[in-house]
Amino acid sequence: MIQVFILKIENPDCFWVCIKGGGKFVDNEMDYQKLQSEMNQFYNKSFRCMDEIKPSALEEGQACTVYCQELKSWCRAVVKSIISCTDYYVADCFLVDYAKSLPVKTDRICVALESFMRLPYRAKKFRLYCTKPVTLRVDYCSDSAEIVPANCWDISAIQYFQNLLNATTQVEAKLCAIENDLFDVYLYVTIKGEKVCVNDDLVAKNFAYYEMNNKMCSTAEDQKKTTANLEPPSKEINPALVFWPMLLQPKEASSFETCKYGKCISEGQGQTGGKQQHMGGVRLHLKIKCRKYFHWIGSVYCLAHLPVVLSNKIEPCSSLETAPLFLALKKELLRNHFLGPSHVQSYSWPAIARGCDSVIICPENDPLLYLLPIITFLQSRSCYISLPVRNGPIALIVCPGQKKAELVFELLETYIRCSRPLYPMLLLLGMNKEEIKSVRIPRGCEIMVTTPQSLLRLLECHSLLFLRLCHLVFDEVDVLFSEASEQIFNILEYYKKNLNVGEKESAPQQIVAVGSQWTKNAEYLTKEFMNDPYIVITAMEEGAIYGKVQQVVQLCLEHNKMSTLLQTLDFTPTDTQKTLIFTSSVEETEIVYKAVMSSSIFCLKMSPEIGFHSDYVIEQWNKCSGTYIVLVVTDDSLPALGITDATGVIHFSFPSSPRIFGARLYSMSANFQNPVEKTRSILLLTEKSACHAVGVLRYLKRTGANIPPELCDFTSGVLEAKEDCKRGRPLCHYLKAYGICKNKERCPDRHRVSLQTDLPRKLTDETLPTAGTVTILPLFVVDATHYFGRIVAKQEDQYTALAKEMNQYYKETRNCVSVDTVENLKMYALHKESSFHRVQVLEVERKEDSVFCIHIKYIDEGRTANVQNYHLLNLPEEFQDLPPQAVEFIVCRVKPIDNEVEWNPKVTRFINHKIKGEVHEAKIVLALGNTVWVDPVVRITKLQNLKTSINEYNIRSEILSTGLGVDNPGHIQELQSLFKDAEIAQEPDLWIDSIMEATALRLEQLSGNTMD
Prior knowledge:
Number of strands: 43
Low-confidence stretches: 214-304, 988-992, 998-1003, 1005-1012
CATH topology of the largest domain: Rossmann fold
Domain Helicase ATP-binding: 368-536
Distance between the termini: 89 Å
Strand content: 25-35%
CATH architecture of the largest domain: 3-Layer(aba) Sandwich
GO molecular function, one term: nucleic acid binding
CATH class of the largest domain: Alpha Beta
Shape: globular
CATH superfamily of the largest domain: P-loop containing nucleotide triphosphate hydrolases
Number of helices: 28
Largest sheet: 8 strands, mixed
Keywords: ATP-binding, Developmental protein, Differentiation, Helicase, Hydrolase, Meiosis, Metal-binding, Nucleotide-binding, Repeat, RNA-mediated gene silencing, Spermatogenesis, Zinc, Zinc-finger
InterPro entries: DEAD/DEAH_box_helicase_dom, Helicase_ATP-bd, P-loop_NTPase, SNase_OB-fold_sf, Tudor, Znf_CCCH
Structural class: alpha/beta
């Protein structure tokens, strides 16, 4: 693989590159710089005596030297053509090191000295190996169209090729053949961290096809003629075929079927007959049916339609050019290197841009799914003329939390720069009544981004907000329904109530819901609040839930799987079922096929080894309408069949991923929501697939399936085992902060208290206090309830004494010695803010030759920072004896509003400004490890000249007063129950310890009596 730099692009068959690195083809940059310097020095001096360096004759193809004004340098060139003007001649010169064309008067062309031709031309001419253009041929007589080979590349293919290379961060090429001065390569580009084969991508996008022939490399004579004198690589495996399924890989002396009419190309014939057959000589029938024979190459799909479930027929937009977006927005997308539309965008954009009610279910939580077509629709002012003239948004986007709302608003601001003024507004409100009443919607605001709770609070004071509303969008609708279903239904009722306003009758009315899961609430939304909605589902496992596929799980042991399969099959011939059995390998396919056949069931099989001879299987499958048929298939052979009318699927082998599971279920998509043909999916779950039991149970609960009690018991055991594996992990932050973790199953941290791990640590000679009232000094505020600081001793504070000693020690210049070598986890001193601090090195990152960026932790304050290595000072051993003094404090019984898991930055800033560096009195509720839970935490101020003090404020009360926090009464109880569970779990060990202690005491007494 060689790294290249693109110089010039004409088309995929002709583009010029400069080789940067890789293999033996690297151009020596220093040699070319030296050559350039010599040429400039020579020709700048000799140009005055032009006649001496002027060529006696000039012809096409002649090497010469010309001056380029753009590069301000003399360059080597080749004359491409000579044009006659009125009284002079102009030569079209090609700069062989820069791949530029330059018109030059013939009297200004110089001779190219032999010494200046010692290096090969830097600009190498490349073309994509075996990749040929195609075009769409329309037959008006038969009213059909087909993709056929073309003689040249069309504009869209060239534009796509250029966009692909312009968007990349790295270009690599794999050399396959050399013909004269032309290099045949597989080109690879890296876009957003993902490597893509350009050859494959052009084929996948229907811009090209592969011409598979035997011309793998040039002859030795041709290779000697190349300017770079490059040797061809040894015979290599075609990289485009490495990831192809076996049924697609051509074999020697075997026919390769290219069309449904049975015309074949034989590689053996090409070798023996002396003629080279290629795909251009045979009609390339790439209709829908023939496309099914191609499978994906790696992650790029090759001439195949990605699966999608649609409630109404939608013509997808295959490119940005055909996307239903206004022109200025398309230009903005191109400036941002947008590579879409993606698969789901190609279906969702047309539906939303028409103003139709839409539900989009896909794995990606991408706001551009709805933002771009909504912005486009809002450009049509004439649609909203009938709306009342008052303040209020036309489009409302409801997000599941403040973070998502901020992200959507940021994207919105990015893409409305090219739009007419829309004056967007981000609405995030707390529970402060005065703040809500003072909210004013800006004049001209046409689009608002908010959360359900914030919106309802505003509606209490501004009930006429929906009078102008036309577009209601729910982002992550499944999350909204699971966390705020009551609020969402209230919003929908508000919206529905305002639909009958007379002024809105002629205005568009649209609801758009985007999510990753199809739920019962989503179904209710489509039936009660939408009008003939367009439903687009690209996650096939969700499509099966939408299609009401019955999900069944059969628990069995691995060695009993075959007998379970045979028992599961329904042998009643009147059921007219079409059943697919999925296996993981060719061998497993054969075993299952023979077992089913032995049960007197009409059975077929399909695996990659059958290759393209699958017409019989498809014919039998389609012909057996009204009878019972079973087809045993592997996952990689399913796309070649294109089956969508199955009524049953049996997963004999467990699907390796949700995508594979969804692809299997898609084979029943023609019968989704079919009241006559009931569909069923049967999953055989064995001990080998036990690790997937949690995900299976979660999916079954969403489908409303009957769940075996054994599966519930087994899953709880799996969860227990997973939790046991987290013993080395820290206690979950959300569990500590709020008493509950919303995503416990997927959270990587521990959710159990361990009395061994969570023992209160030592601050001095004594351990961290576990009860009573202490004086705390918050020094680093993480959020509104989470701080790091110190517990201040009321009489003798050891840290204060240590700080004085350190300042005294480092006052002497000779003691301020910078560290030579920084080591991880070692302690050092750091001078900051007129005092010296103890710090611990967490990570060392090289920045320059002698400068390192050090990630440190202030062990007596709890905060982290980045410093340079020369700022760290040696810390004597006596200053390291005192343990780290930073303690983690968590204020109890308060949490963020609206089920948020993160505090609003407003309240965090407010608390930080109020408490940082101030001494507070706190009552300890619980202490584990280095964490202390406190409630209440009070700032006490002593009155001067009076022997009394007052409580200035309570931190918890201050948080509640902002309207951004709510009471969390179960916080302490949850923590205490975890602590009790840990004590119960340790009781057997404590019982054994008590017996051993009693035995030891008795032995001591006996020995004492003996001595007496």
